[in-house]
Amino acid sequence: MQTYTYTVILEPAADGGFTAFCPSLPGVVTEGDSVEEALDMARDAIAGYLESLRKDGLPIPQERGAIISPVTVALPSAA
Fold first, then answer.
1. Cβ(68)–Cβ(9) under 8 Å?
2. Quick check: 10 and 39 in contact, CB under 8 A?
3. pTM
């Protein structure tokens, strides 16, 4: 069995729970009521995505080495 590792980013959802997405696999977005559930759902979504690629004879993308870092932006005060 071959294994693949991808970065998954979790964001709090507006209505509660978490949204999970995988930057290296466009379109892989899911959600869960907890961090653990969101990660489990992401694993399932990634597995389905990769299985679909394999079925269609397409290459499995490699992790792009996502770098997660906060960025601060300063704006002038509103008038």
1. yes
2. yes
3. 0.83
pLDDT number for residue 10:
96
CA dihedral 42, 44, 50, 56 (to 10 degrees): -130
Under-50 pLDDT residues of the chain: none
| pLDDT for the residue 69 | 84
User: According to the 3-state scheme, what is the secondary structure of the chain?
Assistant: CCCCCCCCEEEECCCCCEEEECCCCCCCEEEECCHHHHHHHHHHHHHHHHHHHHHCCCCCCCCCCCCCCCCCCCCCCCC
32-42 exposure pattern, b = at least 16 Cβ within 10 A, e = fewer? beeeeebbebb
